[in-house]
Structures are given as structure tokens and as C-alpha cells.
Design goal:
Layout: H1 2-21, E1 48-53, E2 56-62, H2 66-73, E3 77-84, E4 88-92, E5 102-107, E6 111-115, E7 119-123, E8 127-139, H3 145-149, E9 154-160
Antiparallel strand pairs: 1-2, 1-9, 2-8, 3-4, 3-9, 4-7, 5-8, 6-7, 6-8
């Protein structure tokens, strides 16, 4: 009996070591909410983007994650974003971006997130939610964001900051 447990114990140690080395594995802290997800600013030279809505211009800081990098690779981007729930605008990409969704808990005005793997969402009102999103970035100063986005569908452009 003792001899049959030794290979199992060795296998458990090897599997534990392999899991610890996997950088793609989500830690429990990453799954507790969006604010604890990969929120650091992207360390590449262009970490900020320009978001234009009509005559209003906003800057946004990108998160340091695969989703933000894939989004950045699609820029420049001019899209028509649809109104939803009186607190957000959304756009469905024809192809998916990498995602690592986490329960948001509280969404803030200016949050730029990915819902599922293909829906870009720009929030202009803060609220609590149990939905799961992957953070892309956040508008740095949301002053005038509500007025710029208005109550209907709107054309929004996303470009790299020069």
C-alpha cells in the first residue's frame, strides 16, 4: 500500500510545480474582481490612447494585459457604439480578443472593458454589477463624458496617443 502512494505523491508534486510555473493561470486574487485584475499600465511606449466622441477628446490608459494589447493592435478604430441600459455604449467585434473575465463588482464611469470575448463596452455611469468583464483600460478624466456620449448610438474613434 505504501509503495503505491509514493508514485501518486510524486505526481502531485510535479503537477503542483508545473501549475506554479504557468504564467497564464489565474490566481485567486485575479478572479475576485476587475480592480484586482491585470490593471497595471502597459509598459510599451504607447500606454495611452485617444478616444474621440464628436468634438470631445479623452485620453485613456491601457491595462497591462493581453486584451489591451490585442485592442491596441486594432487601432486606429472608428466604430458606431450602441446605447445600452443608460450607462454604457457597446460594439460587437466580428472576431474575438483574448479575454480573462472577472466579476466586476463595481464599474466606474470611463471603464473600457471587454464583455465575453468580442463586445467592447465603454461605461459612462458607475454602478454595481455581477457581470464578468476583462479590463482594457480607463478614461483618465471623465469630465464631459456623459454629455459627449449622449443617450443614443454614437460614433467613437480610438487612436494611439502620439
Amino acid at each position: 500500500m505504501r509503495r503505491s502512494l509514493i508514485p501518486i505523491i510524486k505526481l502531485m508534486f510535479v503537477l503542483t510545480a508545473l501549475m506554479a510555473c504557468n504564467t497564464d493561470a489565474a490566481s485567486p486574487a485575479q478572479n475576485t474582481g476587475i480592480d484586482q485584475q491585470e490593471d497595471a499600465v502597459d509598459s510599451t511606449p504607447t500606454t495611452r490612447i485617444i478616444v474621440r466622441v464628436g468634438s470631445q477628446t479623452f485620453t485613456a490608459s491601457l491595462a497591462d494585459n493581453a486584451t489591451a494589447k490585442a485592442f491596441k493592435a486594432r487601432l486606429p478604430l472608428v466604430i458606431s457604439m450602441a446605447e445600452l441600459n443608460g450607462n454604457e455604449k457597446y460594439y460587437n467585434f466580428s472576431s474575438s480578443l483574448p479575454s480573462n473575465p472577472a466579476t466586476a463588482g463595481r464599474v466606474a464611469a470611463g471603464d473600457l472593458m471587454l464583455y465575453n470575448a468580442n463586445t467592447l463596452v465603454l461605461f459612462y455611469e458607475a454602478f454595481n454589477t455581477s457581470y464578468r468583464y476583462t479590463r482594457i483600460g480607463k478614461i483618465d478624466d471623465v469630465s464631459g463624458l456623459v454629455a459627449a456620449l449622449g443617450s443614443g448610438n454614437v460614433t467613437v474613434s480610438f487612436t494611439l496617443e502620439q
